[in-house]
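Box 3.1. Reading complex inputs
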Amino acid sequence: MRKIQIGIMGSAEDLNYSPAALACAKELGKEVAKKGAILVYGAEKEYSSLSTNAAIEADKNGGITVGVTPGNKKEIYGDFKPTVLIPCGLEMGGGREFTLVLSCDVIIAIGGGSGTLTEMAIAYQANIPIICISGYPGWSKKMANKYFDERKRLKCLEAKTPKEAVELAISRANV
Amino acid sequence: MRKIQIGIMGSAEDLNYSPAALACAKELGKEVAKKGAILVYGAEKEYSSLSTNAAIEADKNGGITVGVTPGNKKEIYGDFKPTVLIPCGLEMGGGREFTLVLSCDVIIAIGGGSGTLTEMAIAYQANIPIICISGYPGWSKKMANKYFDERKRLKCLEAKTPKEAVELAISRANV
Amino acid sequence: MRKIQIGIMGSAEDLNYSPAALACAKELGKEVAKKGAILVYGAEKEYSSLSTNAAIEADKNGGITVGVTPGNKKEIYGDFKPTVLIPCGLEMGGGREFTLVLSCDVIIAIGGGSGTLTEMAIAYQANIPIICISGYPGWSKKMANKYFDERKRLKCLEAKTPKEAVELAISRANV
Amino acid sequence: MRKIQIGIMGSAEDLNYSPAALACAKELGKEVAKKGAILVYGAEKEYSSLSTNAAIEADKNGGITVGVTPGNKKEIYGDFKPTVLIPCGLEMGGGREFTLVLSCDVIIAIGGGSGTLTEMAIAYQANIPIICISGYPGWSKKMANKYFDERKRLKCLEAKTPKEAVELAISRANV
């Protein structure tokens, strides 16, 4: 059996997330690693993000990490390198996010601007469960306990703590 | 100079749009054709949509239509065939929508479930202007006069009639 | 019924094609337009190609042209603009070529380095007929009258003149 | 530093590869694992391949494997599951192969019909080194010691044994 692949989707640096959101993202990464799951995230070339910080923390805790990056090159921001790096050949802003989300058995969203929203909407359409950390501003807060449309497929589930989010993710993952 | 490529993005059949929304979509298609613009839409294999109806009407009025369809086959729903058919090689639910939206100089959204939301979020990230018809339920109504995130790139512009929407689209298009 | 979408696939400028190959490519474009077919080609940002020259000539002769370009931007090389421009969201070198070839009912190859070879191999796998102009160096010459593998799907058909190539293309197109 | 990601690209089952080619593919997988490299391969839904057999053997020898599969689903052929599964959202026949190859620091080809040829041509265009096992029929044999075009980027390097191929791959990998 495959290990569960959990996507951590969250705000990029330019959205100025709070120290509390950052701490939460790191805790998410640690929890994913502790549970023996694989952490999947979007690796960018020019900046960091809540997701990248989660990945770094998962790595520090012995977890396997998979970075899905846009374009056709293997350069990514910073010194951290994921266990596996996937340049998907698609641009950022919808394409890269598509490969990224499809590679998850479940996603956890935290904060989130337009990129995270795109990832959540893609997950919804692919019937991939979505866990929303609700304590920080962004689409993850706005969509907690809601459906993306009248089709009412999978409701975005709310989690208040990283631990709760990862436990919920593991219980709902499509593996 | 290229003709303006206007994307019409709207609910699929299974979202049970109203006869009024359908009439509006058709009027959008007619207006796009009358203005000499190219209508770009998502063509599906299994069902119709507001967008497909707009395309049919544009075609009836002598307009050029471009259908972007998921997967690698050229079969699409119904008897109508667009002037140009683009099977983009990407699945539906984010990937096909990416090629679709990037191929537009501006998009007009009407109604809209998770698919239309994905298209709007992709357009926002690519700085492609978004015109929201606000009279029918869906993401197009919810996002009218709003930004997708705190980056405040392009605001989703509200239009109340098809004529207003197409005029606004033409005035804002990136060509 | 849709018009036939004929792809013209050929060497980029840096392969130093001959004046004779260039003249042949232009003639291909003219023939496609005269037959009322749509010419599909790969539009690049940094350079011209045999395909772009074919498109320019089709346009001069009143034909509809569709340029499929890599990435997410609408800038392309030179002053010529196709009737429809499709930035597919995929990088060049396999991805863009995938959307490009899938959008053709048949392809005609002329000259051809690794990019054209990729396009031919994609067409073969999608059962899209391939016509090879055999008079100029490149993969189009090498593959004339051959199959791409032991599965022996569609044989690459040889054509000696642009007129013969376009007639053969129209007779074999999957529409 | 990342571990080296080595792609194993080879014939699918329907090309009727020989028992000797199969044994070689398995040995390739074993060598990749023994060297501590990550094995990247194309996982299909309907059939096995030389690549899948290499991955199974790498897994048996404690290696990390990454399967890149077409479409948006996580079902793959057989009981074997790779360490990481990436459904890339692109169809097979060029698109999936694009994400697959871009995710490699170097590729080793064995046998090979049109799919493997596509992968080799993509690698050439992305300046990803290509090692060709030359003892079995297919594009890997045909291209050994050759360039894909007159641009003469990276020559396809010949290897006669799995051990030699993996050592050569590691020495040439872009990491």
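In summary: The first strand of chain D starts at residue 5 and ends at 10.
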